[in-house]
């Protein structure tokens, strides 16, 4: 039997071999990532402090109209309500719904709670609303650490309830924060999930996601990592390609031209160590703040936010993927649609929206979330025609 130190060396070699094999995986066909947006009402922003007054939420129909006008193909709703889902009836917009963190313990303890949530937010609108996935909680590890043990049972109860109701195409997962679950981002090949979470939560979750054909969801903010690591160049975080703006992973031979890909591949490598490198990845939140009331955050400004959005969308639409995952992430949701009007003691936090609270555009650059944007309203007709053709082809096959 090998001594402990030899086992450690063996596991490290095994880790590197797995990542190397991923880097050679070129057989899959790359496709452009679905780019969506997050819309959360003001009451979510105020939830962290009950004394913070929440601005009245925008009418859901107005939000849906803005999404349609911007040609955004997917929307993530962190605080799903019947009205917010109803606004997208009979649209081609894919919806990712989230169940609030405070409901996780009750969902885990009683399956009837899962059924009740589904009957309120899903069943009345299915399939007229295109609900693609449900996230049970968002960054539960940080906000409700005492409920972490309830997460897997809650996910299982929601998934089982959907199946019992005859709904098989809505996947169920949960959303993590990158900085909460990852040991680091560089080099990506050395990244692993934090212990003991890796053993007690993430590994069994990956097994569940693999079995149910669901995705691993993670919030990836290059802005936050850039602030934590002074050695990261600003241009590297903002997709500003330059001949000298790259980082090499000597283990895999991969060259990185932006921080976003590096963070994604850190997740890919950690999943490989866990034995589930082929589980799809959904970036549930990403963005760059256009302002901050913290005067030390000088990089939170409109110019840099616009650079990040333009670079991110251009990169995702290119279908280039990442060095370790040629197909890239399955979906990515920009945070967020509308700035919050929430203040506490006269101080606002960061502003992340691509629209001002009055729903006017913040950036001169038109963010093209999909190729249909350039076609204008003709795009809807083309998409509809393609859907009919695909349906006819399916019947022929």
TrEMBL record:
| Catalytic reaction list | Hydrolysis of (1->3)-beta-D-glucosidic linkages in (1->3)-beta-D-glucans
Query: Keywords of this protein's UniProt record, alphabetized?
Result: Glycosidase, Hydrolase, Membrane, Transmembrane, Transmembrane helix
UniProt keyword Transmembrane, yes or no = yes
Q: Matching InterPro entries, A to Z?
A: GH, Glyco_hydro_17, Glyco_hydro_17_plant
Transmembrane intervals: 16-39, 375-396
**Record carries keyword Ion transport:** no
- Note the PROSITE patterns from the entry: GLYCOSYL_HYDROL_F17
One Pfam match? Glyco_hydro_17
Q: Name one GO biological process term.
A: carbohydrate metabolic process
Please name the top-level EC class of this enzyme.
Answer: hydrolase
Q: Name one GO molecular function term.
A: glucan endo-1,3-beta-D-glucosidase activity
Enzyme Commission number(s) from the entry = 3.2.1.39
| PANTHER family the record matches | GLUCAN ENDO-1,3-BETA-GLUCOSIDASE BG1-RELATED-RELATED (PTHR32227)
Report the sequence similarity comment from the record.
Belongs to the glycosyl hydrolase 17 family.
Question: Per its record, how is this protein called by name?
Answer: glucan endo-1,3-beta-D-glucosidase
> What is the species of this protein?
Trapa incisa
Taxonomically, what lineage is the organism?
A: Eukaryota, Viridiplantae, Streptophyta, Embryophyta, Tracheophyta
């Amino acid at each position: 039997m090998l001594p402990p130190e030899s086992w450690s060396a063996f596991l490290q070699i095994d880790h590197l071999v797995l990542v190397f094999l991923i880097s050679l995986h070129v057989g899959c066909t790359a496709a452009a990532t679905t780019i969506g947006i997050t819309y959360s009402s003001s009451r979510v922003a105020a939830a962290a402090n009950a004394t913070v007054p929440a601005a009245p939420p925008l009418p859901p129909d107005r939000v849906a109209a803005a999404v349609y006008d911007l040609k955004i193909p997917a929307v993530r709703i962190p605080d799903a309500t019947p009205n917010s889902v109803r606004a997208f009836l009979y649209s081609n917009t894919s919806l990712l719904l989230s169940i609030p963190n405070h409901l996780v313990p009750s969902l885990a303890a009683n399956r009837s709670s899962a059924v009740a949530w589904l009957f309120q937010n899903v069943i009345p609108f299915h399939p007229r609303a295109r609900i693609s996935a449900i996230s049970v909680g968002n960054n539960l590890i940080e906000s409700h650490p005492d409920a972490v043990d309830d997460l897997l049972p809650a996910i299982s109860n929601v998934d089982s309830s959907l199946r019992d109701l005859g709904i098989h195409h809505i996947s169920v997962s949960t959303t993590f924060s990158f900085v909460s679950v990852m040991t680091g981002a560089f080099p990506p090949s050395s990244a692993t999930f934090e212990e003991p979470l890796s053993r007690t939560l993430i590994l069994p979750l990956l097994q569940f996601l693999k079995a149910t054909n669901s995705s691993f969801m993670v919030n990836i903010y290059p802005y936050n990592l850039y602030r934590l690591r002074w050695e990261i160049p600003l241009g590297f975080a903002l997709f500003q390609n330059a001949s000298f703006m790259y980082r090499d992973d000597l283990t895999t031979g991969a060259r990185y031209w932006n921080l976003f890909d590096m963070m994604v591949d850190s997740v890919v490598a950690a999943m490989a160590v866990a034995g589930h490198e082929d589980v799809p990845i959904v970036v549930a939140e990403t963005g760059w703040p256009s302002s901050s009331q913290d005067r030390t955050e000088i990089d939170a400004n409109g110019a840099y936010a616009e650079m990040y959005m333009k670079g991110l969308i251009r990169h995702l639409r290119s279908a280039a993927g990442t060095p370790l995952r040629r197909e890239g992430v399955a979906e990515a949701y920009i945070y967020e649609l509308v700035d919050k009007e929430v203040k506490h003691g006269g101080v606002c936090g960061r502003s992340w929206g691509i629209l001002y609270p009055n729903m006017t555009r913040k950036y001169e650059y038109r963010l093209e979330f999909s190729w249909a944007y350039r076609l204008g309203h003709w795009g809807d007709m083309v998409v509809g025609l393609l859907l009919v053709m695909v349906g006819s082809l399916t019947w022929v096959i």
